[in-house]
Write a structure and sequence with these properties.
The complex is a heterodimer of chains A (385) and B (403). Chain A has 385 residues and is of the alpha/beta class. Helix content of chain A is 27%, strand content 25%.
């Protein structure tokens, strides 16, 4: 009975009272990595970083002398917890459908993502609608009432084959572009606070799925034609069109990659980064395991991407592409205290997640045994049969 | 194939920026008489000088060959269209733009550039009565943007069998797909064409602000935009001429296998024709046509019709140089054949200010042939003053001896 009461007290406490995290390496995302530094928390945010050892005997500090701390990773395109509910395909154009309305913070997809070091994900409508709706930027970890970062982060658009069908307009890519052009013109004329009028006015950025070279070409020409803020997702051949994209200020969310991805695609992030095109990575989770995010970045590194740039694309780069650098993506004073403690550099696939902090709270710790709160991840060794 | 592509990619960014002096035993400017032992100077993507003593800028690379012609232009290509060639949710879709579905990295463009074709008119397919807006693009070039000559060119329409083939009339029940629709006959095709232009003309008369579709049709009615009609059989050609007269439309015809049967009328009405492709062997492609004639192009030219040639989607010996040779074989003089794949094609497409002849100030799109044009192989192909094909670094098609 006593143990049960203690467990209840732990579960209901808003924070674990962590004052700071000490680690052998702190990779901040914006400056050089800091050796043997302590990251201090205050009210769920990062207060400051100090290169010193933690005070001896203060239980408020957690210490991983061999640990490698990064900002929580950002999955820049996923469908976590709501795969089938993220498309309303009776029409091809559903700009005001909102992913946030099907967001379930306690779904196990989020717990699994958090356990893999992903603390923020873009919950995006699927590629099956020309205009799929509003994507939400959400946290995978932390108290359920503090999970929503941007309820209407981006407008999801798809130039992909999945949006073209024989029983519904559009049936072809030419038709898709013409329909989008017509809808944007109408939205611009009608005005108002709908997602499409906001996008047409440049107040809301679009994230456009593009698969093939011609889809990238069409999407790329679309942005300046209407003065839209535009980024691409997937776009495997984008690297071969990087000058074209750079000129238009279009960023690319790359991936997911795996062992069978052609080298021509894997070279894309390096080519884009080299041309100055902003990049991020994604998993499309739950279609891919959350671990696919690190794998994607590591494969891009193997194909020529600078490792530090890859780590940035996983964190501060993604935050910048998604318009949330004020809250996430780096270890700087004032940012949310979302940190991951790794056993080594996360681009080394042998590295493991040792702990995940969300809003200054220790949300997950490898090997820890204590009562779980709703939505909290099951430690890997317990989850396996 | 991969090393070849690599070589092409390298060539696209390598020499050329500093210019070329191209010398040939025969230079065919097309806009004037052929010059013997002449040179063409190229600088910053443009032709700067033509004549005996023409010199490129200091450090310019020198190319030499048998003959030099403008880059060839295919006025009715299908190159690069990815996926379906038509939007099939409507049989009248004037606001559709084929450029939106164009794959700039398609292998077809590389094949065309190697054959000496430097620009193509690509349009939506013939499954729609009014299919949408075509585009003029170069087959190679430094940047994707620079390759687009006309993003929205002539409007494409089709007469005859293609727009109705496969459609099923709705008799009872609920239509379950797009193929339960009109038109189902030649007559239905014309009806839909007429209704579209009639409605657009009425809207224009009433001063109504139209949607994208009506705007495009209005531009055609006002003569600001060309109308390309695919009409293979004689009755389809006549129908197109009748509709053009009815609405005062400026049309041009492709497909045109039986156009020679009304060549005089086409000339009198100043309707241009894009003829071909002629197959190298008997084929079923002529099945829609009752009286195919291999002398189609030469008879049209003899009658004074403004003529271009197309290879459609054909390659190898049926590619555009081959089409010019076939037309010559059946009576078209060399000069007329050359014009039909260069300057006259450019005129039909309304791009003759930039392309189609070797004149100072025009785009440096050029083909240097080993011997006579068409009959010999291209030694070098330039687009916008850049060497996009160089026979010296071409290992030839995979698995074959060098061509």
């Amino acid at each position: 009975m006593k143990a049960w009461l203690a467990a209840l007290a732990l579960a209901s406490s808003p924070a674990d009272g962590v004052k700071g995290v000490f680690a052998g390496t702190v990779w901040t995302g914006t400056g050089p990595a800091r050796a043997k530094a302590v990251v201090l928390f205050e009210g769920g945010r990062i207060e400051r970083i100090e290169e010193r050892a933690p005070p001896v005997g203060d239980a408020g500090y957690r210490s991983w002398p061999e640990g490698f701390v990064t900002p929580g990773l950002v999955d820049a395109h996923a469908h976590l917890g709501a795969r089938a509910d993220l498309v309303e395909d009776t029409f091809a154009v559903t700009p005001d459908a909102r992913a946030i309305d099907v967001f379930e913070p306690t779904h196990r997809d989020f717990a699994r993502a958090a356990r893999a070091g992903i603390t923020t994900a873009l919950l995006a409508p699927l590629d099956e609608n020309l205009v799929g709706g509003l994507a939400a930027l959400v946290k995978t970890a932390g108290a359920a009432d503090r999970r929503v970062l941007r309820p209407e982060a981006l407008l999801k658009v798809s130039f992909g084959a999945a949006a073209r069908r024989a029983d519904r307009e559009p049936t072809s890519q030419q038709g898709a572009a013409a329909l989008l052009r017509r809808e944007i013109r109408r939205a611009r004329e009608a005005g108002g606070s709908g997602a499409l009028p906001r996008c047409a006015r440049g107040e809301l950025a679009a994230l456009a799925h593009a698969g093939t070279a011609e889809e990238i070409f069409a999407a790329g020409r679309f942005a300046p034609e209407f003065g839209l803020k535009f980024n691409l997702v997937h776009a495997p051949l984008a690297g071969e069109m990087s000058a074209f994209l750079k000129e238009r200020g279009i960023g690319v969310v790359c991936g997911p990659y795996d062992a069978s991805t052609p080298l021509r695609w894997l070279r894309s992030p390096a080519a884009l980064e080299g041309a100055g095109v902003p990049i991020a990575f994604c998993t499309d989770g739950p279609e891919r395991d959350p671990e696919a995010l690190r794998l994607t970045a590591a494969l891009a590194v193997r194909a020529g991407l600078d490792p530090d740039r890859a780590l940035r694309a996983l964190t501060v780069g993604a935050a910048s592409l998604l318009g949330a650098t004020d809250r996430i993506g780096s270890i700087e004073p004032g940012r949310d205290a979302d940190l991951v403690v790794w056993s080594g550099n996360p681009l080394d696939l042998g590295s493991r997640v040792l702990a995940v902090f969300a809003g200054g709270e220790l949300w997950f710790e490898a090997g820890a045994r204590r009562p779980r709160r709703p939505g909290e991840p099951i430690p890997a060794e317990e989850a396996r049969p | 194939m991969i090393p070849l592509l690599g070589a092409l990619a390298l060539l696209g960014t390598g020499p050329g920026a500093e210019g070329f002096t191209i010398h040939a035993r025969e230079v065919h400017p097309v806009s004037g008489a052929a010059l013997e032992d002449a040179s063409v100077a190229v600088r910053e993507g443009k032709i700067v000088e033509v004549g005996r003593g023409a010199h490129g800028p200091r450090g310019a690379r020198v190319l030499e060959g048998g003959s030099l012609t403008p880059g060839l232009i295919d006025a009715a290509s299908t190159a690069g269209i990815a996926g379906k060639a038509n939007e099939e949710s409507s049989e009248v879709a004037p606001a559709i733009r084929v450029l939106d579905a164009l794959d700039p990295k398609a292998r077809a463009f590389e094949r065309l550039a190697r054959a000496g074709v430097t620009a193509v008119f690509v349009s939506p397919g013939t499954r729609g009565v009014i299919g949408g807006l075509g585009t003029v693009v170069k087959t190679a070039g430094e940047s994707l943007d620079a390759r687009v000559v006309e993003p929205a060119s002539a409007l494409k329409a089709a007469m005859g069998d293609d727009p109705s083939r496969g459609n099923i009339p709705v008799r009872f029940g609920t239509p379950t797909n797009f193929y339960f629709r009109r038109p189902t006959s030649r007559m239905g095709v014309v009806w839909l064409f007429r209704k579209a232009f009639f409605d657009a003309a009425e809207a224009r008369k009433a001063g109504r602000r139209g949607d994208e579709d009506t705007d495009v049709l209005a531009e055609v009615l006002e003569g600001k935009r060309g109308l390309r009609v695919t009409a293979r059989r004689l009755n389809d050609v006549r129908t197109a001429l009748r509709l053009a007269e009815e609405f005062g439309l400026r049309i041009q015809i492709d497909g045109a296998d039986e156009a020679y049967l009304c060549a005089e009328e086409l000339r009198a009405r100043e309707v241009a024709v894009v003829a071909g492709p002629i197959p190298s062997a008997p084929s079923s492609r002529f099945s829609e046509v009752d009286e195919p004639c291999l002398a189609n192009a030469s008879l049209l030219a003899k009658a004074g019709v403004l003529l271009a040639l197309t290879a459609g989607d054909r390659g190898g010996e049926e590619a555009l140089p081959g089409q010019a040779l076939f037309a010559m074989r059946y009576g078209l003089p060399f000069e007329a054949a050359l014009r039909a794949v260069t300057l006259d094609a450019a005129r039909i497409l309304g791009i003759e200010e930039r392309l189609g002849s070797i004149e100072a100030g025009k785009d440096a799109d050029l083909v240097l042939w080993e011997g006579a044009p068409f009959a010999s192989r291209p030694l070098a192909v330039l687009v916008d003053g850049r060497l996009v094909y160089d026979a010296a670094s071409d290992p030839g098609p995979p698995g074959s001896a060098r061509r």
